[in-house]
């Protein structure tokens, strides 16, 4: 009998499998995707948010625990478990040597408008390279990996895990780690979670999925039916405003539109609806998907002029380009008169300051609702550009309640041999909102904890069995 079963194939699952194997347990990993699509949403990631008290290898300056915590507190609006959040934060400071041991490489710190050289460590080759490195290491250590093996149900005796089933196959093991992702690819569940709005629209029908098509939330539903304690709002997710022309699935990072803070964003009625300059982009980019989701038709338009070019990561697809603002409105299909009224009102409210996109500068609007707090400059220098935006769901936050040992809970009682990591428990830390790289911090921290604890539980069972014999 195998000691530890890991269900899932992304960062959290791989961290769990590697840690369990290092602890001496035999490990079986079941990935629902084919080999070429392995890795879940982790294949689309780029970086890990890391606490550090002084400059460290690829990280500059310092990013202490309290600042990380305050950043997380701000984006979640306080909807977070502080104990588990601080556990994640502290774990992020010491995980990189272990990651390197398993083949992950980091690139030199980035400069420019992303503002993350101090806070985030970037993977050389991105998430796909990280996932491939972990799979190579897992194979070398003897982890048994099965692809195209989606688990559809678990056998439980109360809170005790017995076996997993995938079709007619049954896998009986001593301990299990659930790391199979959220339900972002399940359109019907998204429709149920978001419901119908006051305009009679079903917002979820217009959502694009930035990540994998294989995260259907099957095990979250199964565990809920089995009496596991859930946490999180099903409508909350890592939701980014992405290029409306992005593919339905697996668009990843490259579909993001990063010029929002350098211009204005309007809805299909050519009206602004939020402060584009509220804070640095990595701390605010993930609120824009939800903002756009609440607009008519679930669409928005990011508008900039030539002054913004070169100050943000260029999108994969070129935007609409025009020599005049009225022409841009026509190309985007926006009501021209209202568009010009909105842009004129915005331009007239801009107050000159010292523009600095690397700082919270003093360029702001006055007498305008919503205001633009920073980086407010008149949109007046042709050519002008416009990018259509849709909500892009990365992962959902509804998941399983857990503790600092990554145990699944049933009626408040912790299972002794069933553990959870990654997106399936991220809602314990992320009640809402997001800040760049924290998903990988959560997955890495709890993947490693879950793997260690699962191995301990399995080996304890083995020892008890031997003693009985």
TrEMBL record:
Record bears the keyword Oxidoreductase: yes
Q: Which InterPro entries match?
A: CobZ, FAD-dep_OxRdtase_2_FAD-bd, FAD-oxidoreductase_2, FAD/NAD-bd_sf, Succ_DH/fumarate_Rdtase_cat_sf
Q: Which Gene3D superfamilies match?
A: FAD/NAD(P)-binding domain (3.50.50.60), Succinate dehydrogenase/fumarate reductase flavoprotein, catalytic domain (3.90.700.10)
What residue stretches are annotated with the FAD-dependent oxidoreductase 2 FAD-binding domain?
Answer: 3-429
Q: Which cofactor does it need?
A: FAD
Keyword terms of this UniProt record: FAD, Flavoprotein, Oxidoreductase
Membrane-crossing residue ranges in chain numbering? none
Protein name per its UniProtKB record: FAD-dependent tricarballylate dehydrogenase TcuA
Species name for this entry?
Paraburkholderia caribensis
Q: Which classification does the entry list for the species?
A: Bacteria, Pseudomonadati, Pseudomonadota, Betaproteobacteria, Burkholderiales
Gene, per the UniProt record: tcuA
